[in-house]
Write a structure and sequence with these properties.
Layout (H helix, E strand, L loop, with lengths): L17 H22 L3 H24 L5 H26 L6 H23 L12 E3 L3 H7 L2 H8 L11 H13 L3 E3 L11 H17 L1 H42 L1
Antiparallel strand pairs: 1-2
Length: about 260
């Protein structure tokens, strides 16, 4: 007797791989849509979509690890999505808003940022975790591409926030874009917070903080983004200090262990 075979899009053993990839694809759709809205002159919605894409980018990897749905395909898809959503879309938004006024130089700056972003992603894909230096997993080399995509939009975000501080931040747009492009490919350590242990007693306060953050983004989107960008820029020298401190501590530990082996 012949058994009926049900059509399955993927094997039942691999369905857990779908959810992270769906989240990733949602991010690339948001990134591409942001370009469309920037062409239409709707910059507030364009920036909001980049923010949503960054949130999805932060979720997809964590969801994949949580449900054990990580895969090589997902890793490559995530990198391609990051390049579109944070290496192309933000700088095009910026180009349509301000950089186009600089003519060929403005387009060159846009290209420099995109090239630096793709180089950063390629280096990240080739980086292998060193089991002997687990403390390094709490740091990125350079700034991550989602953060870079949001940082270059700071002048536009300030303009949308309409703070009326009589500051012409538009003039800093090309300089900030080049600076962020350099930070993408630099080896300056920045905090990743992937391996930070959270005390059970602090979980409630962390959830409360996340809730307050989402409320702030909901009602004061651009003002909250401004605070985030400035706070992140301030955190870079702090990250460097923490990195150097942990590196020194690890070097001293290695030297002590080597000395004991000799004895």
């Amino acid at each position: 007797m012949e058994t009926n075979k049900k059509f399955k899009l993927v094997s039942s053993k691999k369905t857990r791989y779908l959810l992270p990839n769906i989240i990733t694809l949602g991010g690339v759709c948001l990134g591409i849509s942001s370009i469309k809205f920037s062409i239409d002159g709707n910059y507030s919605l364009a920036v909001t979509l980049i923010l949503l894409a960054a949130i999805l980018d932060a979720l997809d990897g964590r969801v994949a690890r949580l449900i054990k749905g990580t895969s090589d395909f997902g890793k490559e898809l995530d990198s391609l999505t990051d390049f579109v959503s944070f290496g192309i879309a933000p700088v095009l938004i910026l180009y349509f808003w301000e950089l186009n006024k600089y003519g060929k130089l403005g387009w060159a700056i846009a290209l420099i940022f995109s090239v630096c972003c793709v180089l950063r992603l390629a280096r990240f894909n080739l980086t292998k975790n060193d089991s002997q230096n687990e403390w390094k997993q709490n740091f990125f080399e350079g700034i991550p591409s989602p953060v870079g995509g949001l940082l270059i939009l700071t002048p536009l975000i300030y303009d949308l926030a309409d703070l009326k501080l009589n500051l012409d931040i538009k003039i800093f747009t090309p300089y900030l874009t080049v600076l962020v492009a350099f930070l993408l490919v630099s080896k300056i350590p920045t905090l990743s917070l992937k391996k930070i242990a959270i005390s059970p007693n602090a979980t409630v306060f962390l959830l409360l903080l996340i809730g307050i953050l989402f409320i702030a983004l909901l009602f004061f989107t651009f003002e909250t983004l401004l605070i985030f960008t400035f706070a992140y820029l301030i955190s870079i020298p702090v990250s460097l200090f923490i990195y150097k401190k942990q590196q020194k501590k690890y070097s001293e530990k290695i030297s002590v262990d080597d000395h004991e082996d000799i004895l």
